[in-house]
Amino acid sequence: xxxxxxxxxxxxxxxxxxxxxxxxxxxxxxxxxAITDADLQAKVDELLSDxxxxxxxxxxxxxxxxxxxxRGLIKDFxxxxxxxxHRFSRENFLDRRGRHRVYGIIRLINFAHGDIIxxxxxxxxxxxxxxxxxxxxSILICVAFTSLLGVAIEKLAYKPLRHSARISLxxxxxGISFFLQNAAQLIFGAxxxxxxxLFPGNLSLxxxxxxxxxxxxxxVSIVLMIALVLLVNKTRMGRAMRAVSEDESTAALMGxxxxxxxxxxxxxxxxxxxxxxxxxxxxxxxIS
Length: 288
Fold this sequence. Notes:
Elements: H1 38-60, H2 64-106, H3 113-130, H4 135-158, H5 166-188, E1 193-194, E2 202-205, E3 208-211, H6 212-234, H7 236-246, H8 248-253, H9 258-284, E4 286-287
Antiparallel strand pairs: 1-4, 2-3
């Protein structure tokens, strides 16, 4: 019995030569980012212009003095970006925690969460400035109202579409965001309002002087972060939230009330949004 094997020759493909673009010898330092803060944009543009000019001088001739100046400009640029990022992240920490509670349960990016913060800011301003309600009572009312608002949004807008396509939930979230923006504009007007800082003054820590509201923001964020971790890991509702996040169907078979758990997640996220709104308004004293 004869066995015939056909020879198979491997075909080696010759890679195409890659074209290289020759530089013109100039130096350019760019930042790929979208910046909405006008003051930060002007500051960054000025620093980038100085860095680019100094880089061009270094490209022409290497000098130790130019190198030191270039390093100093890079340091100033990084300090500015880090300082602004830290300042922004302090007030938005609670906002992110609220978003993560909702996303972790139903896998929904709640675009209306930022507008809930806006509504909470206007509510606490109206209670304090217009109705002369005590500050502590205004804060409690704002947190309770915002929590109920979050539950109402979940019941009316998200629950009917819970098992629909993700794009339907996404479009609904954007629609709720537009609705809250326009409703607030009709009720409170389009002009920005000034919010009185509830924690005025500065604190001196040796040679360092920081605003009192900054210390309050950091302390409140740490306390609520610890409370949130304990809630999620040590309580029955926290275990239910984790179970629903892992597998909604299996959690329902194990006796967990999925609807109540999801509503609690929205209430919790909205309550954190209210606290973030109050602290943010105290730090920036303008609501729009």
